[in-house]
Amino acid sequence: MVGPIYIIAIALGLAFLLGFFKKLNANIAQTFMMAGVGAMSFISVQWLFGHLAGMVTETVTYTAGFKPPFSISLQMGAMEAGVTSMINIFGFLGGVYLWRKLKEMGLNAIIIYMVTLMGLNVIVLTRDLFNLFVFLEVSTIGIVGLILLERGVNTISSGFKYLVAGGVISSFMLIGTIMIYKYAGSLYINDIITSNIAATKGGMVALFLLLIAVILELKPFPANGWALDVYESANSGISAFLSAGFATAMLFVLYKLMPMFPIEWQAMVAVVGGITFIGANLLGIRQKNAQRLLGYSSAGQMGLLTAVIGLSSYLNEQFIFILVTILLGHYLAKAGLFWLAGIVKEKEINSWSLLRREPLLVVLFGVFILTLLGMPPFPSFFGKWELIMKLAAGGQTTWILAILIGSFLEAVYLFKWFGYVLKGENEGLPVLQIKPEKIISPVVFATVSVMAGYYAGSLLGETNFAFYIPLMFIAAIGLLEFLPAFVKNTFAIAGMGYLAYTTLPGLFETDLLRFIFMGIFILGGILTLFAGYYYKGKRQGFYPSALIMFAGLAGIIQAETLLQFFFSWELMTIGSYFLIIRGKRSMTHGFSYMLFSLAGAYAILAAFGMVDAQVGNMLSALGGVTSHATLIFALLAIGFMTKTATLGLHIWLPGAHAEAESDVSPMVSAILLKAGVFGLLLTFFGMGAESAGNSSILYVLGWLGAITALVGNLAASFQEDAKRLLAYSSIGQLGYILFAYAMATQLGWIGGFLYVINHFAFKAILFLTIGAVVLRVKTHNMYEMGGLIKRMPLAFIAALIGIIALSGVPPLSGFAGKWFFYNAVILKGWYFQGAVVFFAGVIAFLYSYRILQTVFLGQLKDEHRHVKEIPLTFLIPIYILVIGIMIFSMYTHWVLEPITQYLTAYFPSDPVHWDGAAATTSLGYWNGTWVMYIIGIMFVLILGWLLWLNAKATKVKQFNMVFSGERPFTPETTHMAHNMYAGYNKALGFITAPGITTFWNKVAEFVTDAAGFIRRIYTGNGQTYAFHIVAYIVIIYFMIF
Amino acid sequence: MENIGLENIALFSGLILSLVGLWGLLTQKNIIKMIVGFALLDTGIHLIMIAVGYVKNSTAPIIGEGVTKANAADVIADPIPQALVLTAIVIGLGITALMLAYAVKMHQKKKSLDINHYKDLKW
Amino acid sequence: MNDIIIKLLWTLLGLFIVLNWGMLMGASMRKIVARVAHRRGIPIYQPWLDLIKLYAKRTSISHGVMFYLGPVFRLGGGVGIFLFLPLIYGSEYWSNFSWAGDLVLILYFQFFGMLGMALGAGEGGHPNSVIGITRGLSQFTTVEIPLTLAVISLALQYNTLSITEIVAAQQGGVQNWTLFTNPVATVAGMLSLLGALRHAPFNLVKAPNEVPIGPPTEYHSAFLGVLRTNGAVLHVVEAALFMNLFFGGATNWAEFIIKTFLIYFWSVFVGVVHPRFRIEQSVVWFLKIPLAIGVLAVILYI
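ok -> structure tokens follow
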């Protein structure tokens, strides 16, 4: 092994040598520098691998031939090896990135770059306190020197502010250091740790000054304005250096020095970190400048890591894992994003839509944003997961809350930014010029992030591989993006088919619940993907997104542990977000979808933490939860209800579903919503409804479901946009489903399953049909359609069947749902909720009629006279589903009888008796097959009779009708469609007044206003920033002592 | 005077000096004056460091003239703070120089040395 | 096999009786309304003449397939309810196919005809049809609420959703009728019936003056014949449903005829003395007193 001293030797030596050759060609000088940094990286990395492989142990290098405290010693343990590897690799890639800039600035810049890097290495390695101080100053001077790579007045003034603030901080650090020396008699960190100087008041003050200085170097909120200015105005490569290199080293310093401080101070460190995490992320919400935003985020991440260090006593054996994964996430993402900022060259985040010109950049951006947020499959996901689990195990509920709030605030601005990138207007923006050296580094870091995620996951001992197979498949599809859509579509369908083949038969044997949902997910996926054959061209980005969603969906079914479930859940959220935001006007809808989903996911995470703390990490152990069961139950319910779009949490749905592409709408409506239902079912099945707390929550959920159904259906009736109508209808239908499962009786749940299957089938039919119609007529507005039955009879028949199944008219399957509801409601005793649900069911006729009438019937518009039937690629899946619905309606018992038996395990009372197709309860009876026969025969007889009477009815033209003696020839004025239920709207429209949307808007407004108000503390004045620092020290001092 | 002690005088004046320096850094609007404030702060801290290392009635930590290797530990003042001060002075010098360099650059850009004129970046 | 054929024949006979009784009842009601308004009114055999004329018309026009199917759905709806409704208590033959489903089936089967008819008329392309239908659907949503609550109340009272069993529980004298054992539910149901049968004040849906009788405008000849046929059947079976639920059912045809007549007469009686509601008024009206009564009916049985 090459000793760590050579890291310093190489850097210093090269810097000195280069200094002698002032005239040296910049290219050669830089090649030397890169070789040097490469060698430094090599040394750190070999130590890292040595440690990982267990080949070396912690090694201390002594300088000047003495042992400490008489000399400075460098320690190369696993952590040091890791952190110096991070710093040096960053140094290397950052050097590549800055290649042109450094060359332009000449030899001095190259030397400073190397010295700064060396300074950071020493900060990490040294075990001598004063040495630490010296090299901290060296690095600071170096960084401030590098800030001058840009010569704008803002950059220069920000550098000065940085220097002033840094000067104040280092003064305190220096006083602290010398006082520690006075009390401990040594500067060797190990000696100080054992010397117990905190026993004396002076020693305490000394330690305090040192600690607060280190914390201040980590840019705690609100004493961090000086750093934000630099992040904003420096060259993006230098900002990356500051964020990924400098901050990483400083964080390690805090980690290294922590044992010196009294154990009681850990709480203070944690609180300081927590406040920073929340505060910085809150203020980030108002930020529009990309680099400054990243600065806020940087401060926030450091706050989180500071909190982790402060909370280490709760984290036990996982402390290092958590620290390293979250740090790694920050390091990779922040460096990558700053680098991208240098490529984009646009300051405002809403100009980042520029990235779309180069898909690779969008992928990189996505990887970094998700890494930063701790989304799967990236390393920080596992770190955050473990953090929450351990905090829960320690009973630290407040901390869980704080961390989740901070993460959520972070997500708010990151996804707003993401939205701009994916959907923002990019007309009129300058051309994107990518220099090759600038793209290499981000690509490397993104790749590392993916691999590190896999590695982190396997460290947690999960059966990780199985979860990565789909991801690898998706990555492979991603690499095939250049192929035309139909080829990728075939691959995607084949993949889904393989998944069905490998999973469904097994699930059928073992678990009916999972079988049903898996069937919906996979078969639904295949059918809706089939419609994708319609699309020409490459359809960039669609297949990876869709498959990520389906992988997540399949994952939540197959998950056995809480972690696997959550991993898949987040995966599904990400995939569906990408799918939803593909719609034309979907930027805001995708954004609100993501925020609700994330808030829900965090509620689930918190609940999982509490579960894990009590009964371990198996999903099946949910039932064993004893303490806080009601809270856990409520959190899970809320979390899953964000996906089922229950009233109050529904405002994202209409826009997201309506604006999505024609084949995406059915995916996210008919299929994705069921994931929330599945989650609810897991909760209800797992935790039971027996306890008083759970049953009162279920009671609330029951009402909530009923009211959701009512409001959803009513709102659907007042829509002018066909897809919005269907979207609101989904809200209503999911309200029924929630209501059914909240009843927690066997009949209720049978009804629930029936609705789940039914809603899947008819909503897929309707969304596919209407989506295809929209593709043909190029409008969503129903009053601009009309009379399409003449042009698209097959589409009409499908829609008709779908609507009949939806509305619950016998003989189709919807009626079975109503029948079970009546029985269940009466036996459960939820009469009034039931009445609301039945009322909602009748209201469903309003929109059912509306969509059929105004789209397919009434007056055909002139511009649609030659429109074609909807595409065959849509018709095939639609008619497969239609056949499915017919069979399901006729032989409902084929499905419901096994479900009844399955549920008997949970509800031994068995209130429904099956005899073939005849179902009997203590209240009533119903025979689906016979009803079908009777109605069918009767219908045919009457039709035959009418045909016999009326065989020669003359076909007449469109306007041949009684119209007060006039012949209207303008379909627009004769098509009665706009504001169709005017009277009803007058009577009951107030119920659909957008109160909930207004409420959430107010909340958002309040948060952004608060952020806008608080951030005014950053006045831009360097002295104010210095004053913040002094005040910060004083306040914390008085809080501690 | 005898019982006040030289080290206490150094400590006290160092404290005063650094507080004055800090005050100047925080209140003076002129950038050059701020830098002067920083220099004072730095110097004050150096004085404090010296005071911490001072041992009464000891001699300088140099071998010779009654100081042998054997009795060195008993008779000399602690040499480390002095070594540290030397380093700290160098670092302080570096930072002050850098600040001055920045001040020059800022003046070149805006023809102003008032810190209040450099508030374009905020919030 | 024989059984089924015999069953079918009896059912057809029942349908024939109900159809004729429906036409007679309809004619007499029109007569009553006319007399109230100091008119002579139609001759009592007018419906038969109309029906024969309509079916015999040799020319007819069609706007398309759904237009054609509309009346089929409509008549199917009426006949379907007839099929699933037990007519005469204690008679195996007159209980039709009620073993295939209970009260819930009938409640939801009402929509079969409505929806089909609505769609058929919609294809006719006449905007007034659509206005009529939207009004009808709007009004129907709240009309159903008191009925739903009344049905829940009955289900609690008799602990069944089977119509036959509900009727069975009311046997043994007038005092056992729901009318007397559960008067609140009966009131809720009867108020709902006013809306369901769409006489004044709830007849804006087919308001003759404003919309030339709504959806049927475009229908004529055999189409209209089918609709008329359905009207006759539907009125009787709706009345019969209420008879079964609230008034002890019928054990023979005479009782059946008297009771259905009186139930139907109730809506006419209210209708002739009341002006017409606007649609938003009628929607809200059902959400006030009838809703409160319905809620009370359920509360009494919790």
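The mean pLDDT of chain C is 89.
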